[in-house]
Design a protein that fits this description.
Elements lengths: L18 H7 L7 H17 L5 H13 L1 H11 L13 H4 L5 E4 L2 E4 L2 E2 L3 H12 L5 H11 L2
Antiparallel strand pairs: 1-2, 2-3
Length: 148
């Protein structure tokens, strides 16, 4: 609608003749990997701060992660490097495939942008998700968006 007030003609120009446009599209991005990583960290920090949980609940999840044996090890590997899968304890081997998706933001363990819920809190979190009476599909979608 906005373009209707202009009188224009569409003309095909072969790609070989669009030297300037082609050159501009091939210019490497100026920012380095560090800039991209810092942008990602800022985005994840924003998500953590705006997760639909109360501050008390987020504090509880963090403290339970600090007591949960598996979460403690996962946090340790997020800070350092992961050993080879053969050198991992059996209970941590299932997490090896997801190691690139695990991160630590402000002391909170995340899987992508979702909170990692310690074993002792999983039942409570499931009850909280069910309290909204959203139905099975909406409840599952809500859980997939916020927790892992």
């Amino acid at each position: 609608m906005r373009l209707m007030r202009y009188n224009y003609t569409v003309k095909y120009v072969p790609g070989k003749q669009l030297v300037l446009a082609d050159a501009l599209s091939r210019i490497p991005i100026a920012s380095g990997r560090e800039d991209l990583e810092s942008e990602n960290e800022a985005f994840v920090r924003f998500i953590v701060q705006n997760i639909p949980t109360t501050d008390d609940m987020l504090t509880r999840i963090k403290s339970e992660q600090d007591r949960d044996e598996i979460c403690i090890q996962l946090k340790k590997y997020c800070k350092t490097n992961w050993p080879h899968i053969k050198n991992l304890p059996d209970k941590l081997q299932p997490y090896y495939a997801f190691r690139e998706n695990l991160s630590l933001v402000e002391g909170v363990l995340l899987f992508n942008l979702r909170l990692v819920i310690p074993v002792l809190m999983q039942e409570e979190i499931l009850k909280n998700l069910h309290e909204g009476h959203l139905g099975v599909n909406k409840c599952r979608a809500r859980a997939q968006q916020t927790v892992w």
